What we know:
By secondary structure, the protein is mostly beta strands. It is about 0% helix and about 55% strand.
Amino acid sequence: QVQLVESGGGLVQPGGSLRLSCTASISLFSINVMRWYRQAPGKEREFVASITKGGVTNYVDFVKGRFTISKDNAKNTMYLQMNSLKPEDTAVYYCNAGTDFFTHFWGQGTQVTVSS
Length: 116
């Protein structure tokens, strides 16, 4: 079983920044793609960003230019740098790792609250 441990959430004012981390229990070379999702109260879980084994990134439109996904293979860790945060970014953020098309693993989630 692949374990994903997330950290870095918290309370931040609008316009502020947070960096989320997701550390995997296996080498990132064994993971084809890693993704960040988020879920706000009363809403469905939604895709935020992804990064492939080769470093190709993708973002949902509403975070482009504000969020940056990256990874450190030596630390088995993926990051989401979130800048210019807005209240509508408030959600539980989840790490997802896919080792193949059918096999995905989820982290426990970390709360991000953007409020003045």
